[in-house]
Protein: Cyclase
Organism: Rhodococcus wratislaviensis NBRC 100605
Amino acid sequence: MAAQRSWGSDDQLGALNLSTPETVLRALATPRTGRVFSIAHKIGRESPVQDRKHPTWHTTTVREAKSGCVAADDLLIMHSHSGTHIDALSHYWRGDTLYNGWPSGAITNEGAPHLSIDRVSGFVLRCLLLDLSDVCPTGKAGHGFEITLDHIEEAVARTGSSIEAGDAILLRTGWVAQYAVDKATYNWGEPGIGIDVAEFLAEQGVVLIGADNWGVEAVPPATKGEGLIVHRAMLNRFGVYLLENLELEELATDAGPGAYLLVVAPLRIRGGVGSPVNPLVMT
Amino acid sequence: MAAQRSWGSDDQLGALNLSTPETVLRALATPRTGRVFSIAHKIGRESPVQDRKHPTWHTTTVREAKSGCVAADDLLIMHSHSGTHIDALSHYWRGDTLYNGWPSGAITNEGAPHLSIDRVSGFVLRCLLLDLSDVCPTGKAGHGFEITLDHIEEAVARTGSSIEAGDAILLRTGWVAQYAVDKATYNWGEPGIGIDVAEFLAEQGVVLIGADNWGVEAVPPATKGEGLIVHRAMLNRFGVYLLENLELEELATDAGPGAYLLVVAPLRIRGGVGSPVNPLVMT
Amino acid sequence: MAAQRSWGSDDQLGALNLSTPETVLRALATPRTGRVFSIAHKIGRESPVQDRKHPTWHTTTVREAKSGCVAADDLLIMHSHSGTHIDALSHYWRGDTLYNGWPSGAITNEGAPHLSIDRVSGFVLRCLLLDLSDVCPTGKAGHGFEITLDHIEEAVARTGSSIEAGDAILLRTGWVAQYAVDKATYNWGEPGIGIDVAEFLAEQGVVLIGADNWGVEAVPPATKGEGLIVHRAMLNRFGVYLLENLELEELATDAGPGAYLLVVAPLRIRGGVGSPVNPLVMT
Amino acid sequence: MAAQRSWGSDDQLGALNLSTPETVLRALATPRTGRVFSIAHKIGRESPVQDRKHPTWHTTTVREAKSGCVAADDLLIMHSHSGTHIDALSHYWRGDTLYNGWPSGAITNEGAPHLSIDRVSGFVLRCLLLDLSDVCPTGKAGHGFEITLDHIEEAVARTGSSIEAGDAILLRTGWVAQYAVDKATYNWGEPGIGIDVAEFLAEQGVVLIGADNWGVEAVPPATKGEGLIVHRAMLNRFGVYLLENLELEELATDAGPGAYLLVVAPLRIRGGVGSPVNPLVMT
């Protein structure tokens, strides 16, 4: 088991501690073109959601005042873990403890008292966009396909940069295209990283790993009966955040592999175990 | 009636067109300290919401798999226009047309086909934090209090900078404190800007105006029977976005008036007329 | 156009006025066996719902008190017009007026000020169960199939009774079986009654017509471009209520055609245009 | 501890087993006037709900088809245990077992696999309306006030009938009026029955106990630290159903104490631990 950092017994932020005023300023200085990319799916009935969850419910309402003025509003009903979203460190576990020893049993239907998403102000990170779409198979062949350390190293090299502490990693697997083809195939498995790549990235000081699939990691995992092992390692041991169901096609096409600025601003849901987000990448 | 810019008959972005790669790069270069502030209220039952709306509903759920692993999720039910949120250009109107002549009648319970919030990738803007908390009355005396152009000019001067095209303006009125004291007083009126300040800011090329009250503008407005006149002018004529229910206390206390970087990433709700947001300010 | 009864310019109950203390007592005296049948589908993600609507969302929550006692609750998110439900007289229309001249334009996102379902205390009616499952085609051949007056007369004869003012009619078409086979075929059309049967039943003084399909009437209707013509005639002209997506298999198998007691107790949704229901038949 | 009936180790209906074809026919023969009373509150934002729950959310939507026809629908978001509702036998407990030994641990956010409300077709019962509004104090003096066996016997005598196996009991405490005066006082306590009356009623073979307060029983209960002891006794030991937040004023005023027909048709929520209902009383 890989070594992991610690920020004290009260810590609830995990690897986000690696993001400092210095790394923020460095991240802000990264962009060269001034272009702004949203890497989120649109939110609505068709936004990606796992089979056993509910499609997002969006209804727009209007109210007309005596003045004849009309105010429109939206009623939004959704899982925090649907469409493009971030996992809080309290999202997934096995056993009695979460990250840094916080008790899993304290989570109730009213929310997570520890490690909730509202403890995060926001992520302002340098990110490396790694393009693995050429190595990840499509269709059912993609299920369980594991991106290797060699793949990662090659992909990093193509960015013209290297991983530094405080960075985010964005993985383009190309799996997103599967959602339009066949939702069942998209949902029941996926190509992604395995435990060795995940631990490698965490050891490099990565704060967040995002991908254009629903769970970042290879599913089904190589090891059976252990659940989503990358989730467990990242969220429970390393305090690394996961960013899922990204839409990276436009960014990858227009900007390609490289080092950019990533800003993720989760909704500050009190006690939330995650949040829908609209991550922005500035190139 | 003040002159307004135009970006063609098909335009649906309004003043966001004033945000260019150049203004983005300038905005990114603004921060000096590398500190990141969230200026959003927490989201939950207690987040600010107008009287006739519903409190936000948040329920955390868990699902245990055969492996013993547990996945937690949140069920979120909310108005897009509750808590800290942004108004899309399709949020408010009187009569048949919205900004740039788009028909208000095309908005249905399924959403807005034009000027919807999902058309915006995100806002990466330089912002000026103006502190008007010393001039705005508290309690019921605050209802209808109008911030003047003189107040604005003095507040801008205290930032050590000046308004430039492509900027955002953040107004601290101090009204936010009223919510904890008495929700009715908070909701039934507020101090804010009037039509002259709003038009002045729009003419300067401001993209977005935010405030720590629920509606940016003085309510009740000076002119009766015309609804929210600043909303109408900004959203329908100038295409300027409004950012409401901000929580500016920490930023104002720690950083004070000044020019900073503001990033707002609305959820890309398809056909949405607004979005809850977690705006970030980097100082 | 068939003649229709009237109960005054203020009336909002329509044909329910035909249910009187006398018909209630007669209905209560109908059962012979004392058996109670629910003719509703179970409510949940799989309950029948039209394609463009959302599946019902049901989440059970628990809260543990200091005493160690646990209270469970359900969070229910649903369309009133999903699964087994009743149409209020304000559910469907064309043009400016609803039943008895009430204005359709008064319906807003806050509800229907007139003809809403909460105006009904409940339905306690004698019902005739008519079995048309032998004459209605299955699969796509069922789309638009119209049950004729002859079919109805034969089916009534098999009940051993005759239609009386104040009665309800329950139509078994067998279409319900299609939902399990192919939801698209179920939803895009159905066998049912046409305008002549509907008007005949209304003229007989029927209060309510129910069926084991989603819309009671033959869809697509014989006449094009007029929408659901039976809905319009029953709800807007005759004030006859429609009860949809019934589950009549058990009742039909165990009790067969006959005259029974029907009790329908819509939720008293203030301003609601319909309600999910669990209609009970006592044989 | 009072003796209790048993209907086998697989039983999930509890005291509803005491409702037989014979008691149903007897109940149906009870009404003399043919009048139908709804004893439910209207459902909407103002319907009674405990402090820590959410107000009911009701939005009416419309959809216009090409034909110009408009279909209205309602979006309903609510707790099953809000307003007038019935408790399933799986609603409340302490420890590992529910009624008849079913495991409480099997209840998840997806519902109750045992003792859920969808197992009930419906209740068709003779009911005795007992009027205790003259003995129950109003205001805060009502908190914890316990209706005694003597009160019950006197109230039964005033119905001109006596309790029989298979009956329902409806208790008018008058507490409902408190909701309009002061929700906090209404919610934080109430007059009601204690454990001795509850056990007495259960031993008489009562299937269901309803009241015009939020919990049927005296709150706070005489015994501290044991939670809602009448709930536990009725739901967990005797399998007696509880019907809460009734609106009995009209029935009590127009019909007074007596024996009537009660029909309760819970929505068949799959795995639901309760349901909103519109109970009907026929006098």
